[in-house]
Structures are given as structure tokens and as C-alpha cells.
Amino acid sequence: MKELLSLQFTIFILLAAGVLVKKLHIVGREGQKNITDLVIYVVLPCNIITSFLNGMSGDALRDCVTILLISLGIQVFGVIYGKFLYRRQPEDHRKSLTYGIICSNAGFLGNPIAEGVFGPVGLMYASVYLIPQRIMMWSEGLAIFSGNKDPRGTLKKVLTHPCVVACACGIILMVTGVSLPGVILTPVQTIARCNTALSMMIIGMILADIDFKTILDRDVILYTVNRLLIIPLVVYGICLLLPVSPLVRGVSVLLAAMPAGATTSMLALKYDCDPAFATKLVVFSTLCSIPAIMIWSLILA
Helix, strand, or coil here: 258? Predict the structure, then answer.
């Protein structure tokens, strides 16, 4: 319990630091984008690789397969649930809401949270969990806005995504038992330790741009309830019925309780689908996710 409370306090301080550096203009919009790219393309892949360097056991392999299947099930559920839930919404809003149900911010926020709550093994399971979501993001998710499906383009984007490449490399290292030479391992581990701090500060920078007068919207609030409460509750209930380990259950539920991904507003802007509404989804659900994730962490840890 002390460790979890310490983690939550650390996250709060890092979020506050992110808000402060943005408010004081120490980091501008372009700098925030650059730091985000640094995390996605360098820090997070190093973090993922190190999470697989604990050796392979029969239980770990079984749990990786289990959490992969659970994640696939969650993605299928998200597609069906989103289409049913938002079928009567105006088209522009329906696209953002449906995409937001399928593609959460687990790919960015989920890894440091899973690592902080469950340790390196939690990060490893989270990396495997995110593979189906990354596939869905570039296939069904993109098709929601564009109306086009490009299997070849989707496959290319998924296979070349740095986090997927890192996950594949980590699995190979874990299965084969190959040890990285110290000249490579030490820099990778050093970079990996920056993940939680940088990720949380970026979320703080996003929160710094919130205009609290404009984000309250009935549809946004209902979406946030579904994203942070209903969906993880469904996952939690199903995992209780399945013969899965507490760690697999914890990672699955925690990553199911993530806010809307930033790509929601990016795609809405690109395809002219009311980007202001999409931004409200991202900002409000992200803001509410802070206490929600802390509560889920206390329940699951």
C-alpha cells in the first residue's frame, strides 16, 4: 500500500511539473510535440525491451498469450459497443466517440502506469496487450474517419511501429535467453528509466491547455463514464470468471480504464469531423482519468 501511495504521489508531482513547465512557457507547443515523439520513438521502445529481459517461464508465456487473447476480445467488444452506443449521434460526433471507445490512450499512458503499479512484468504484459489495439488503431480506427480500409498500409504501419518492433525484439530476447552486451544494455536501461517521468509530464502539459469553461458536454461526460468506468468494469467481471492470474487481470482492467487517445482529435482535425468536440473528449477524459486510474490501481494492486 505504501508503494502504491508513493507511486500516486510521484505521478501527481510529475503531472504538476508538466503543467508548470507549460504554463511558464519553458516548453512550447513544438517542444511538447518533440518530447512526445522522443518518448514514442526512443524512450518507450527501450522501456519495452528492458521489460522482457527477466527470462522466460512457462507461466509468463502462458500469461502473455492469455492477455493477448483478452485484448483481442476487448477490441471486438469495443467495436460492437461503440457502434451500438453511438448509432444515433450526428456523424461527426459518432466518428470521434466510436474511435475513442476503440482506441484509448493505453498506448502512451498505459505502459508507465502498468510498470509503476505492477513492476517490469506488468510492463511486459502491457506491451503484449497493446498489440491488438495498435492494429485496430491503423485499421478499423482509421477507417472510421476516412471510410477507407487499406490492409497493406495497415500491416506496414503496425509492423514498423517502434513499440511493436521493440515488443518483437523483447520477445525474441526473452525466448532465446540471449543477453545484450553491457555496451548496449546499459544505455537502453538508462533511457528506459526516463519513461514514467517524461510520459507523466507530457500528460501534464496537455492538461495545462484545458479551458474548463468549454469542456463540459453531456456526450463528453457520458463517454468518459463509459471509457473509465463501464468498460473496465465489464473487463473486470469477465476476468473474474476466467482462470487468469491476478496480474493478467490487473493489467487488463487497468489498461481498459484509459482515457481517449490524442489521435482522436488529430484524426478529427484531418478529416474535418468537429475537432473541437474530439478535443473535449480527449481533454475531459484525460483529466478524469487521474483519479480514476488511482482508484483502479488501489482495487487491482
Answer: coil
Query: For 2-60, what is each residue's pLDDT tens digit?
Result: 556 676 677 778 888 988 998 999 988 888 888 888 888 898 888 888 877 765 556 77
Q: How far is CA 283 from CA 56, 74, 82, in A?
A: 39, 23, 19
CATH ID of 2-300, from 1.20.1530.20, 3.40.50.1000, 3.40.920.10, 3.40.50.620: 1.20.1530.20
Place of cell 476466467: 242
User: Using an 8 Å Cβ cutoff, are 45 and 163 in contact?
Assistant: yes
Separation CA 255–CA 131 (nearest Å): 12
- Amino acid at residue number 162: P
By C-alpha distance, which of 42, 91, 63 is closest to 247? 63
Specify the pTM. 0.79
Buried b (16+ CB within 10 A) or exposed e, 190-229: ebbebbbbbbbbbbbbbbbebeeeebeeebbeebbebbbe
